[in-house]
Model the fold of this input.
Amino acid sequence: MSYLKKVIYNCKQATFLIEKKQLKRLSFREEIELRIHLAGCGMCVLYNKQSRVINAMVQQLFHDSMKSELKLDEAFKAELQAKIEEGLGNN
Amino acid sequence: MISETNVLNPHKWVATYADYLYMYAIVRINDEDLAKDLVQETFLAALERVDRFEGKSTERTWLTAILKNKIVDVYRKKSSGFAIAAANKATQEQDEFFDEGNGHWKPEYAPQPIAGMDEQDPLLKKELNKILQLCLQKLPALWNAVFTMKHIDDAATEHICTELHVTQANFWVIIHRAKVNLRACLQKNWN
Done:
């Protein structure tokens, strides 16, 4: 198989580069390989789009859960503060 | 004008930071009892280090850093031994997504549109978010740890590799596999 054909068929490598590119600058060669692949592969174009949406969703999910109402119960907190006071007393 | 200095006031710790730290731990380890333990350990460890606090960060940032280290300890424990075996198994399963010879998508795993991603309908989005949460939980512990540290905490790659004892090459493989799995899981459970 020619080098170019390998690049065109290899979705495993293309998706690897798609992930890498979202976190780091690709090398010149990697960048070219990815562009060639994406020019001819609709499936990986879709993967690229979905992968970015997933990142945004994950971040939103964590962001939202930090605002959630879930709280520690008061009894646990009182006990915990008591332990801290005890520790302070020992110093 | 009074310049703001960072001082510690352990008498107010629980009232001021306990809920915040608890949430911080919960979203990263998804285990309420363990999160409670970590909050307690964080305060007690902080107490022992009070005299080493230099006032360079806020009290909250300082406490969060201590908790962060404790979370990484949990990640490390979870991803050793049996967990590694489970991750390797998942790796093999992931290899089934692509043709072994030329790396092309296998037809049954090829990406398809996932309606919840394109639609602006809040109900669909909510549903997709629920599925995403389940899919995240299904990732092997080590993948989840790497994925969370990178995407949520935006930690430096070198830092993640050192903390979790993975090589740089392995790091990129994990980042790739985690996402391919996550996407496939969304597609499978959505359609």
Observations:
- Chain B has a mean pLDDT of 86.
- DSSP finds nine helices and no strands in chain B.
- Chain B touches chain A through 50 residues (CB under 8 Å).
